């Protein structure tokens, strides 16, 4: 895990530079105005601040497709170079026009970093901690703002503060970012797979995961190249080898997957439930119910995965000891009398102790592997192989019953046999004995991008994933954007970016100095001998500092409570604080009461925003798109972000003059209300799920939505 964490920290420095620049320009613009006498030229003054927004918007238009072409790592290197050059030019800037050019270069660097760092982290992080690592850009961005405000505050105390030095310091951390990007950051393994560079992708994965056996995740990355296609939901009963011997009515013998436990000699059989298709019935009932309450069926599908996890420590949960997890599975030894000696040497001798102690050096052999079937006893055409892919998911393969193709199966354990809460894994009736060690598993079944001849046994999985798949040779196409699952994901991504920009963060930032001045902070600092300019910088630094603990809490909760829960929990708090600010500006509560209410509201707003609506839109957008079109789709979402930022920034003064502060905050409150309903009805929970499984759910949910509309 350490490799992925260090890579994410290094990549997030790009967002630290963005936060650093935002704070520096906010402080240095006071001195720029004085030197160039811009008090009578508000347009030029506005352009100095806005040029980075313009540059970020322009570069974002190209960043996605270019990153799909060149790779994620080269774009991060280019971002660091742009940061460095802009810092040097701002340090030199003899006139305002050279300064505007430098700000444009700086905007290019910001646009690349803000757009691609979340994508890069999502593509390199394991599912179990992807949310935590993808919150790092928010943390480093706020930390950069705090450090920059401290620097500006210190410089403002000198006799002749230099705005050139304030802006030029950016070159120093950008050099660090450049060195890390060139010598430390690897290329995204998912991008390498999309370009057919299989051996390099495997080598990067081995470095990131800290183990040699990455065949399961390599196969997952190859499968992620597919866009569209039919996906069906099936159910499996997982049990010890002999537990289903007397209960054959739901089992089809030719479809068998053998699972090997952490201890030597333990194994189980997975058999599909056929006939009534209980999951299909539950899915159809859910679609009808959701249509009546406007909730997207996709949200229910995602929610069913997280509805009831296995109870830790129970005997039944040990059937899948941390099923498929890349980090919490103890080293194990797979033994089968049909395996040859060479296979055993390849898998290694990795028996675990009976305690099942956790180890980071794990998964040297897969939990889910091929069932060796005897052609004399079983159907030889139904050979199945599988492997863990992280986040409690397994990837398995079987031959298509109706063609010569290959089916992939994403399997997930969802709870013990007692689950009857409407989960996608719950079985109606009572046909499974409570005392039997059965585990219900959901299965997403769709066409594989691999061929049947590539998967003849587990030992050839490595060989199969070293070949360039046909999907990689085809590359991305604009037609892929019109696939139902991709369109569905774009609606979620673009929608949440728009709502984030209009939820009030810019207005609250604009109003904060005035609020804190009313609270008497400025008077207190002036009594300490600190001038008004320096006081405003110190206040901004303290405000930013308050965000950091809240972001730390969000990092902890992102993969535990989840993205959706954080949004649904923090948006009502944002709404309440905005309503309080509205009342505080309408009703005369007295100077002291008004200052207290406004100050508390602003602080709570900031803390809750950086826990939810700040980082999560970018996290979601980096997770929900297929690998082949991720760059293009991210560019669309990021472009929406920057255009919204420009609109809100430049309409705010006009709105303040026309409807006042209370009117502006009222609009923001309405947007927060709309955002809560949008999240509740449209935004799924993606915590702990591999990216490829997330896109599969989107494709399936989109088709269910279309089917519901027709009916």
TrEMBL record:
Major facilitator superfamily (MFS) profile domain segment(s): 7-687
GO cellular component terms, A-Z: plant-type vacuole membrane
InterPro entries: MFS_dom, MFS_sugar_transport-like, MFS_trans_sf, Myo-inositol_Transporter, Sugar/inositol_transpt, Sugar_transporter_CS
Reaction catalyzed: D-glucose(out) + H(+)(in) = D-glucose(in) + H(+)(out); sucrose(out) + H(+)(in) = sucrose(in) + H(+)(out)
UniProt keyword annotation of Membrane present: yes
Domain of life assignment: Eukaryota
Pfam families referenced in this protein's UniProt entry, alphabetically: Sugar_tr
PROSITE patterns named in the record: MFS, SUGAR_TRANSPORT_1, SUGAR_TRANSPORT_2
A GO term, aspect molecular function: transmembrane transporter activity
Record membrane topology: Multi-pass membrane protein
Family that this chain belongs to: Belongs to the major facilitator superfamily. Sugar transporter (TC 2.A.1.1) family.
Protein name per UniProt: Monosaccharide-sensing protein 2
